[in-house]
Amino acid sequence: MKKKILIVLLIMGGLLSTLSAQRSFIRISTDETDLVLLVAPNGRLYQGYLGKRLLRETDLDNFSYLASTGTGDSNWEVYPGSGAEDYFEPALAVTHNDGNMATILTYVSSETKKLNSNVTETVIYLKDRVYPTEVVLYFTAYAKENIIKTRSEIKHKEKKPVTIWRYASNMLYFESSRYFLTEFSGDWAKEVRMSTQELLFGKKIIDTKLGSRAAMHTYPFFEVGLDGIPRENEGNVLMGTLGWTGNFQFTFEVDNTGNLRVLSGINPYASAYELKPGEVFSTPEFIFTFSHCGTGKASRNIHDWAREYQLKDGKGDRLTLLNNWEATYFDFDEKKLEELMKEAKSLGVDMFLLDDGWFANKYPRENDRAGLGDWEVNRSKLPDGIPHLVKSAKDADVKFGIWIEPEMVNPKSELFEKHPEWVIHQPNRETYYFRNQLVLDLSNPVVQDYVFGVVDKIMTENPGIAYFKWDCNSPITNVYSPYLKEKQNQLYIDHVRGVYKVFEKVKTKYPNIPMMLCSGGGARCDYEALKYFTEFWCSDTDPIERLYIQWGYSYFFPVKSMAAHVTSWNKSTSLKFRTDVAMMCKLGFDISLKEMDEKELAYCQGAVANYNRLKRVILDGDFYRLISPYETNHTAVMNVSKEKNKAVLYAYDIHPRYGEKLLPVKLQGLDPAKTYKIEEINLIPRTTSRMISNGKSYSGDYLMKVGLNLFTTNRISSRIIEITQQ
Ligand code: DGJ
After folding, report:
1. What is the CATH code of the structural domain delimited by 321-407+447-475+515-620?
2. In terms of CB atoms within 10 Å, which of 74, 377, 453, 602 comes out highest?
3. Which ligand 1 atom lies nearest to the CA of residue 539?
4. Ligand 1 mean position, distance from CA 540 (Å)
């Protein structure tokens, strides 16, 4: 009997391998896009096609034909190794045990399986015929959202460790007449500024070497417009993002034939990695969408995908909050905090969030020069400890959240005195400080345990804590790991992996606690970290900059994941304007009600009530960018519920010119056949709307074709409109 089964299995195995040998193409499809990979007669894997989904299955035979005659785009190798006949940037580079630096991968097999009715995973196995190096490529296609997520794994069976010095997550090729790259760059308080340039022959690299606060100057996402600059509602555009909370690199290389290669992965800078035999080097996920109708639809697809599959608690609710950072900075005591808790309640938000400054005794956290690392409550500011504050919040009928920055240390701290060997810093040079602090060495498992312990201790002592704001204010400086010793070239990678180990442990033990990812503003904003965080802090900044920042992030992140607070920055702007800007995302306040007059307070209370009422539309609806602040002196965006029965429209005048011609704003995403009522909300108490359309009803068709007059020539003014199906 056993023999028979064995024979059947052998025949089946034979059949499967014969099938895969005959199959010369691999099709990775979403509802809108096909990525077709070809196995050529030389046994290597090439990209045959990336574009609009092909309608006829039989057309794929044309690709098989190209592959079998070897006349396809044979230089478009899917995962090119160094040292072969391709003279451009490789995806993989390995120095083998004998010193040879060439790697050529050939196709072994592949398998495709449906993970559910919307998600298909394709796994492709490659190997070098000369050296025992193996690569596995993973492609996960999300049909409805038109997203492909891809990553690779590298391993080998040589006798001794090999050095890998290129290890891309993915490589894509495009053939077009012109290419336009939109990049996102900036710094604290001016995050994600967008700029577009044409890509001509040669390389354009976007990368970071900052290590921990990695996205401080540039962000792990980009757009490439084919034929023209990326447009909102038309044109072919690639939008890609890397899930890596450390040094990343995107290389855009236009080659000698005018084709574009897009290489995405960890930045290999100072990171030649020693890979032991049998060890698997897993690259981060590169997530991309190739849209054939512009960036607007692509963003909505990314938002849907993120909420459904990637973001922590992507489908859940979000807490509105009052944060004490800008209200008190480091200067607070129990009484002040308790007043703020009551203010939170009176505003109508869900939670009070205690920010920086609550800890450390020997070197009290009175400013940013001391105390980081000593996560004991500061007894002179808060003699009754955190449990008392949690109770006070309960008494005030709000939840309680707390700020931590557990990956960092001030040299003026007991932690540094006790464990200087836990800290990344040079043993033989003068130390340079970024915000007076240093980064803990998360490549060290003992330090990982310590960082997890910070959260675990707070939670064990205060099970009532409802939220964490997890900050990270410094890049890796004085780059030397006392733990890694002679393997410093692994620091940038092992550090990030250590960070993930901690995130994973926190998520496993406290799966339901919402957490904000903060990095001195928005310098951590990637889809790997967001598996562990419900939202990220986009910036500490004034509301005008915020309009550009929220606009920029919205290309890749749903507003639900973007924390936005009303602050005291730029007091020349009205509180209404500041609130109307924050209402666009996950709303919070970073301001004391004492700064408000009676009317302003009533206005804010009304705004919070409106936000709570419209939360599902704002946080889970479809987001439309209507008018760009980069192209006009105004900006407008809107959210439309999935059922198309409710929408929230935001319009801002930034710096209009005298006598400027004001154009109506054409809405998007409504049902043309439905009738909608227009009502301005968030009005200053005892004022009425000046919009002539206020209170009137229009068809969705009219609103989308003719539009509404939303803008004015008033500087820095705003209005929010609720749109309801009649
Ligand atoms: C930087 C953050 O962006 C601020 O919101 C605040 O939490 C401070 N860190 C605290 O040090």
Report:
1. 3.20.20.70
2. 377
3. 3
4. 8
